[in-house]
Structure prediction request, 320 residues.
Amino acid sequence: MCLIGTFFLISIDSFAQRRGGGGGAAHRGGGGGINRGGNIGGATHTRPAQTTRPTQTTRPAQTTRPGSNSGSIKRPANSNNKVTRPVNSNNKTARPATANRNNNNRTGNRNTNISGNTVNRNRNNVNINVNNSVHVRNNRNTIVRPGPRPYVRPPYVYGGYRYNCYHPYYPRPYVPFYWGPVWHPWGFFVATLAVTAIVVSVESTQYHYDQGVWYTSTSGGYTAVPAPVGGTVNNIPSGAETVNTGTVNNYYYGGTYYEKDGGKYTVVAPTAGTIVEKLPEGGEEVTIGDAKYVKFGETYYQPVQIDGKDKYEVVQVEKE
Prediction:
């Protein structure tokens, strides 16, 4: 038994030298022998304790946003640095009060107002204006004398009336002709008249005539009116044109017809069928069925074309 024990120890020692690479007994954490869970040769070798993983890192608690009334940045209620617009600043440009826009009273610096459209007619430095409130008797030069010969063309019938002309209807827009600065349309107002104006009495009515324009006295001045039939003057403007009525020659200027009587000129009503090239300002373009006429008072002009030229013919209007 002693021999076997001795042999066992020698075997263990040899084994220990082989593993430890050194002399004597191998030391693992202690002295002479190897202790694997027990005590071998008096030396104790203990395995290190198992490494423990660190505790899982806990995320910090979620940051809580400040409430609406706690910790939030508040804009100052009434900051001294806040730019405030002045309520009523002395430097603020104020818009002027609304101007009076009464079209009937625009007679201050504007010398003419025709049907609401301002036209500067102060060419001779004369205070001129059209007074729309003045009643103009347009029926004094609207009677149309019948044509000198029968009509070969059938009349244009519309609305219970017959419109007779010798020439066919040739539509085109109405463009007034301008006779110069001394001529004015019906309703035109002037504060004063030139020294060349004369007084003409017709049927107990007094008119003023000056260079082809007839006037009546109104409040504060004179208003242009249709030439009165029967009014007689010694001279008519040099720009008057000769028109043939079919029987006699008339002299036409600014929408007025004159017949020469000796050395004088008498205003006459237009004759149906008379052809003129120019119509003055103040006419009204009216639509009669499919046709458009230019109307002065109760006188109708039909646009026609003769020898390639645009002209107007006085229409004879008859009730059916």
About this structure: The chain has one helix and 21 strands. The radius of gyration is 60 Å. Residues 194 and 210 are 8 Å apart (CA to CA). Helices lie at 2-20.
